Amino acid sequence: MKILIINANDLKGGAARAAYRLNKSLQKIGVDSQMLVQDKTSNDYTVLGPETKSKKFIAEIRARLNQFPVKLYKKRLQIPFSPAWLPFSDIVSRIKKIDPDIVHLHWITGGMVRIEDIAKINKPIVWSLHDMWAFTGGCHYDNNCGKYKSECGFCPVLNSGKKRDLSNKIFNRKKRIYKKVKNFTIVGLSRWLTDCVERSVLLGSRKVINIPNPINTEIFCPVEVKTAREILGLPLDKKLILFGADSITDYLKGFKELSKALDEIKTDVEIIVFGSGEPNTPKQFKFPTHYIGQLSDDISLKILYNASDVTVLPSLQENLSNVVMESLSCGTPTVAFNIGGNSDMIEHQINGYLADPFSASNLAKGIDWVLNNPEYETLKQNARKKVLEQFEMVKVAQQYKELYENILEG
Questions:
Q1: 204 to each of 79, 198, 207, 388, how far by Cα in Å?
Q2: CA distances from 340 to 53, 135, 144, 241, 295 (A)
Q3: Which domains does the chain have, with CATH numbers?
Q4: How far is CA 48 from CA 14, 97, 244, in A?
Q5: What is the CA radius of gyration of the chain?
Q6: CB 194 within 8 A of CB 210
Q7: Closest listed residue to residue 239, CA positions, set 257, 253, 225
Q8: What stretch of H or E contains 177?
Q9: For residue range 178-205, what is the model confidence (pLDDT) as tens digits?
Q10: How many CB atoms neighbour CB 284 within 10 A?
Q11: What is the 8-class DSSP label of residue 149?
């Protein structure tokens, strides 16, 4: 059984890291798995990137050109939106050359795959959805508009006042192309996204199942807190709150809600922000803040989670967050809003806290509850146990292997 995982990147971004982990998980159980990307940063020989420097350069240009139609909407919300319109990709020809038994799509935007290319893939397709893009008119998260259940248009993400806007055109392109795909299985990585797919016009009639992302629990594991803090130069005598986001300006990441919550918490803490560097005009919390910046390897991330007393994910829409899974796997309790796939991982007041959406006050209550919990060590043990039971890499890989076998037998 030969599996080809397709993702725009191999290590950059949450979807890339999750797809790469699946690639390694499948290999661990003996599945012949490779990964095809347009931007390769690893030195893994099982990851296939652009074949020449010129093709790598073209891939970088495609990512920029792909956004051209979106830029015409000057008043759009700052939410990722992908039209996937650029022709002349070599993705289909490369798939034919590799000749896998199953093509497993993941995050394929950024100029990598044109919507029309999907119908040209003459192999069974599995598509693991890391966000909502596959069944919307172009947005990766719909900002709770819900138009994917009927038809996109008058797009609130684009701030459009027209029915036949870019979202409507993309929606109908997908509708036309998806009809041509015969062997098509959709994987919702969270129960929430699985439910969204089933209610969608574009993919609701397809086979839809729920399988989560895998994680290597041997890498993401507990280490001694003092050691972790000494490595990162963090204070040993403070309670530390961890917050991760690629950009603190992306309002869907909930930075505004987190800021309000931190103004209300009663515990004396310090803040750690990773994924984003310190801005030119940094938000002044009432607590000292450490900006760690981007961490590119799992070992550094493990050290960071273990140095923290609690991880906070204040996102307003979220699928199956790597941050939550990684934090819990390291035994660090997590606080998040009770939305999306957060409840797949966080068990309320067992291994963390699920706050009322989108209450900054309740988020603050959850942070205080974790930091001052007399059974804090039990929370840490429960966090680790949850991941070992449901998201450990071999267990998840076996679920995917069974899915592949059923497709090939069917």
A1: 24, 4, 8, 31
A2: 40, 16, 11, 22, 25
A3: 2-214+392-409 (3.40.50.2000), 225-390 (3.40.50.2000)
A4: 19, 12, 29
A5: 21
A6: yes
A7: 225
A8: helix 166-178
A9: 999 999 999 999 999 999 999 999 999 9
A10: 8
A11: G
The most distant pair of C-alpha atoms in the chain lies apart, rounded to whole Å, by 61
Give 279's DSSP letter: P
pLDDT digits (tens, 9 = 90+) for 56-79: 888 889 989 999 999 999 999 988
Helices 322-329, 14-28: crossing angle, 10 deg rounding: 50
The continuous run of DSSP H or E covering 206 comes out as none
Residue with structure tokens 């609701």? 204
The residue-averaged pLDDT of 380-389 equals 98
Q: Measuring CA to CA, which residue among 107, 174, 171 is closest to residue 145?
A: 171
DSSP annotation of 383: H
Q: What is the DSSP string of 391-404?
A: TBHHHHHHHHHHHH
DSSP string, 284-333: --SS-EEEEE---SHHHHHHHHHH-SEEEE--SS-SS-HHHHHHHHTT--
Phi, psi of 251, deg, nearest 5:
-65, -20
- Which of 307, 296, 223 has the alpha carbon at shortest distance from 270? 307
352 close to 223: Cβ distance less than 8 angstroms: no
DSSP 378: H
d(CA 300, CA 243): 15
Q: Which residue has the tokens 């798939």?
A: 95
